[in-house]
Amino acid sequence: MAGSMNKVIIIGRIGQDPEIKYTPSGQAVANFSVATDEGYKDKDSGQKVEKTEWHNVVAWRGTAEFVSKYLGKGRLVMVEGKLQTEKWQDKNGQDRYTTKIQTSNVQALDKQDDAGQQEEYNGPAF
Question: Are 55 and 98 in contact (CB under 8 A)?
């Protein structure tokens, strides 16, 4: 299919400290979630409505090491990558689906280090 693209960029806060594990071959993989918020005013009631969307993120190799070492719960980050949906079966044999962002770039947008510099990892992701 020519002309298609699978790319996503989100900006949000990390929901919990990234969990890093290693594959049998020694590849680092980190899993974490990022929350994005949006708000709007309901036209019927006039009330402000806020909605939070949670995104599951997977980082590999150097990106995983960077995320687990420098980023934690509450940090404001930009995540860039592609969407990947995995199919699995629950204990009742029902098909289930989980969509994750396979990240290629993670950048801290808040300043939490002593030098006041942004942290970023743009190295190989996979």
Answer: no
SS3 39: strand
**Tens-place pLDDT, residues 90-126:** 999 999 999 999 999 999 998 875 444 455 555 554 4
Q: Which residues pair with 25 in a beta bridge?
A: none
Task: Count CB atoms within 10 A of the CB of residue 57.
Answer: 24
9 bridge partner residues: 80
Q: In the chain, what are the domain boundaries?
A: 8-39+49-108
- In CATH, what class is 8-39+49-108? mainly beta
pTM confidence score: 0.80
Q: Which phi and psi (to 5°) does residue 61 adopt? A: 50, -125
> What are the residues whose beta carbons fall under 8 Å from the beta carbon of 53, sequence distance 6 or more?
35, 36, 37, 38
Structure tokens at 46: 């006039």
Q: Where are the alpha helices (DSSP H) in the chain?
A: 61-70
